[in-house]
Amino acid sequence: MHERFLGIAAPDLGELERRYLADAMASGWISSIGPYVDRFERGLARFCETEHAVAVASGTTALTVTLAALAVGPGHEVIIPAHTFAAVAAAVRHVGAEPVLIDVHPDHWCLDPALIERALSPRTAAIIAVHAYGHPADLDPILAVAASRAIPVIEDGAEAHGARYKGRMVGSLATAACFSFYGNKILTTGEGGAVVTADPDLAARVRLLKDHAMSPTRRYYHTAVGYNFRMTNLQAAIGCAQLERVDQLLAVREYNLACYQEALAPLAPVLRLNPCEPWANPVNWLTCGLLQGAAAGRRDALAAALRTAGIDTRPFFVPLHQLPPYQDCRLITAETDASVRETPGPTPAQTQAERIARSGLNLPTGAGVSADWIAAIADVCARVLQDA
Length: 388
Ligand SMILES: *Cc1c(COP(=O)(O)O)cnc(C)c1O
Fold this sequence. Notes:
34% of the residues lie in helices and 15% in strands. With 388 residues, the protein is α/β, with parallel strands linked by helices.
C-alpha cells in the first residue's frame, strides 16, 4: 500500500548529512565561520568545473549580490526570462534596476536567444539566463550578443545543478552563476545559495559584499554598503554531504524520469514531458508535464484528481508580466513586430510563457517517488486525459 501522501519535492537526506551536521554543531562553529563553509565552497567550485565559489544565504541573495558586485543598479536594465521563479525579477529590483522580460523558447522553455537583440538598450547592464526546470539555456547565442556589447551574463542554475550545455557544466558557462540550495532543489542545505565564477576579482567582490563589506584586513572598516548574506557552517555541513552524494542524487532523478517516460508513453500525444535539446544534458529537477492541444484545459482537473489520490503537484510558474510588481515591465515576444509590446500596456494575447504556464504541471520528483507511485500517477493521468 502507498503512504497516504506523495510530496512534490521531498529532500533526500541521509546518515552522512546527519553526521556532518552533528559534527558542525559539536564544534561550536554554528555561524558562518567554519571548516564546512570552506569545504563546501571548494567542492562546489570543483563540481561546477570552475574556479571560485562563494556560499550565501539563498539563491535570491546570490543573484542580488552578484548584480551588486557587477555594479548593476538604478538606471540599469537586466534581461531575464518572462517565465521563471519571481526571485529572479525581485533580485533585479532589489539592486534598483529594472527587469526586461523576454519570452521563452517553445521547445526548451528557457530565454529565447533570438529575442535578445531586440531587448537591448543603452541601459542594459546584465542578462540572467535561467536554466529552467533542469534544462540548460541556449547560452552560446546569448553570450555572443552579450560579448559584442561587453554585457555580463549570469547563469541562474538554481534548478539545474549538474546539467551540461554542449558538454560544459552549468555554472562554468558565463560571467558568473548563481545557485539555490532551498529544500526542494537538487542539492539542498535547507536554505542556502552560492555564486560561482572563474573571475577571481568578481569572487572577491561577492565575498566582500555578502559579509557586510568589511575589509578582510581591517576589522570594522567597511568599504561599501554591504549585506549579511552569509551561509552558516551548519548549512554547509549538510551541503558537503549532499555534494558527496550528488551523483547518486542525480541518478535517482534521472531514473525516475525514465520511469515516468515509460509509464506515460501511451499519453505522449497529449502529455509532453521534460524537454531535451540535442545540445543539452538536462537534469531532472522537477518532472514536467505539458498538456497539449485540447488537453491543456484539463490541467487543473488533473491536479485535483492527483491530489485526491494523495499526490502533490505544482502548476508551472505564473509569467512574470502577469504578477503585480512586474506587469509594467518591458516584454519582448516572438510575435510579429507590430504586436511586440515594448512599452507597458495590456498583456499580449499569447506568449510562450503564458502557454506553458497555463498547461504545465510539475509531478513529484523528490525522495519517496517509487515505481508504484509513478504507476498510480500514470493511472490517474490516463483516466483524466482519456478522450482529450
Ligand atoms: C529557487 C529559485 C531561486 C531562488 O532561490 P531561493 O534559495 O529560494 O532564494 C532563484 N532562481 C530560480 C530559477 C529558482 O528556481
